[in-house]
Amino acid sequence: MSNWEANFQKWDSFEGLDKDLKTELHTIKDNKHALEDAFYKELTFGTGGMRGVLGAGVNRMNIYTVRKAVNGLANYLLANQVNVRDRGVVIAYDSRNMSKEFAVESAKVLGSYGIKTHIFESLRPTPLLSFAVRYLRTVAGIMITASHNPPEYNGFKVYNETGAQIVPEEANLIIESIQMTKDELTVPFLEKEELEEKGLLNWLGYEIDNAYLERLYHMTKMSEDVHQKEKNLQIVFTPLHGTAYNLVTKGLEQLNFPKVAIVKEQAEPDAMFSTVASPNPEEHQAFSLAIELGKETDADILLGTDPDADRLGVAVKNSAGEYQVLTGNQLGALLLDYILSHTNPQVYQNPRMIKTVVSTELGRAIAESYDVKTLDTLTGFKFIGEKINQFDATGETFIFGFEESYGYLISSFARDKDAVQAAMMATEMAYYWKEQGKTLFEALDVLFERHGYFLEGMSSLTLKGKEGSEQIANIMDAIRSNPLKEIAGIKIEQVENYLTSERMLMAEARKETIDLPQENMMKFILEQNAWVCLRPSGTEPKIKCYYGVCGKDKEDSEAKLTSLKETMDQIISDILEGNE
């Protein structure tokens, strides 16, 4: 009997199995492929937590896999932190199927160890959970969300006592602790009613929201007189069926932006995200209804947040008068320039901007023009949060952090990407540029004229299931074992292998150490201010390829970007066909 068959038999014969999961097992009982996929491996707990398809099996998100993860987390906390039971853990959840149930299951397991939990009475954004950890001074935080994944997914993210996502060193210890739990079906837990009777479960109302909104009010870069006056900017906002409605609308209200039109069809939470193909502001179709409302109201700016409100998309009118969604890199560059142009860096000690290695180099150019140093991290906002946490010891000051995938942080009262903060700053930035007679696209042209025409792109290939995981691994192994010397006729100057923490300087045939955590990524620094980075997604069954160029104008940059993409697509295709 194979491992997956043994796992299935254990579940199928478990008398206390949840009735809905038991029904699902019987539905797929004769489908060998479906059963194998559900049981051939345990759902991966990665550097931030775990995310997967809802359903029965050890490779699915369900009450048993969640209990096992929480059991490991509880043992990790008790072994590595102090005063764990009294400080407790704060838990938030989004609008997805089973989100509140998983939040309560987490509390039930933590409670069995005498660890107090605080759970929000209703859904809340991820950045508010990050803030709540710091506000309540809990030992950790749990966010039940699958962010912008399709409706069949849910997830479990862990935050450390600083309010940042756990980093690899912490994750590895938690994983070891999880693996010590041999049977996910028999994890100890207390019932909710018992937790409440013992004072181990505290339901949170709006106290933390109000404290967050106060920080948001003081984050503005507007002068006091501009802050206080009612501003003539027409805004459209969609929370994409998620968690951001209350905080974004109240935040805009306290900044005196009264002209806010809400996309009503997407204002209410909806676990199926029924009005969009994907609840992801990176996907431009998610803005279809917002664009319609924008045309009706002649809006100056359209704001869209993903379901757990850690990512923000923005659309404004282009030169043709049509609404166009800014890329994450474009919005990040605009926000950075606006913040720095309204901040005196001399006030701060060693001001720092932080970005990921796959985010635009335009950010570095902008920061340098204001005498602000740029720090690079691996992909994932947890590494930006980690850097911010280190600044207390290093004497550096956080100014702004961003990643190309629509994640931004303006103020460090939260320690994860924050779409609510970003929505406020993007709105006041749009108002500033409107007062100068420019749209945000025209403001972007100003940056290009100053710094060069930077352009970025990303392509991804979805490879699902066990076979897909093996194919992704094969692609990375092939690229690593046979490093490229040029891409699209452009010579490679440096090869950065993050798995081995080595940088090869091609002209000198010399290696350097990369001072970043190890990760399964390869980046190629090319001549002509171009670069390519290849990495498997940590949250989806995809391999992603990122590109960046800086040409003399839009046409030159677009041609270079297209050439890089077509070349890499062919290289990956050849590997999959065995022709590498």
Which helices and strands occur, and which strands form pairs?
Blueprint (H helix, E strand, L loop, with lengths): L2 H10 L6 H9 L4 H8 L9 E5 L9 H18 L3 H4 L1 E5 L5 H14 L4 E4 L5 H11 L3 E5 L8 E7 L8 H12 L12 H6 L3 E4 L2 H11 L6 H5 L6 E4 L6 H10 L5 E3 L25 H10 L3 E5 L6 E6 L5 E3 L2 H14 L9 E6 L5 H8 L3 E5 L3 H14 L2 E7 L3 E3 L9 H17 L4 H12 L1 E10 L2 H17 L4 E2 L2 E8 L4 E4 L4 E4 L8 E5 L3 E7 L5 E10 L2 H23 L4
Parallel strand pairs: 2-3, 2-4, 3-6, 7-8, 7-9, 12-13, 12-14
Antiparallel strand pairs: 1-5, 4-5, 9-10, 10-11, 14-15, 16-23, 17-18, 18-19, 18-21, 19-20, 21-22, 22-23
Structural class: alpha/beta
Strand content: 15-25%
**Biggest sheet layout:** 8 strands, antiparallel
* Distinct helical segment count: 20
Cα-atom radius of gyration: 24 Å
Q: What is the oligomer described by this structure? A: single chain
Poorly predicted regions are none
Count of individual beta strands: 23
Average residue-wise pLDDT: 95
Shape: globular
- Distance from N terminus to C terminus (CA atoms, Å) equals 36 Å
Could you estimate the helical fraction of the residues in percent? 40-55%
What labels describe this entry?
six-stranded mixed beta sheet; 580 residues; globular; 20 helices; eight-stranded antiparallel beta sheet; 21% strand
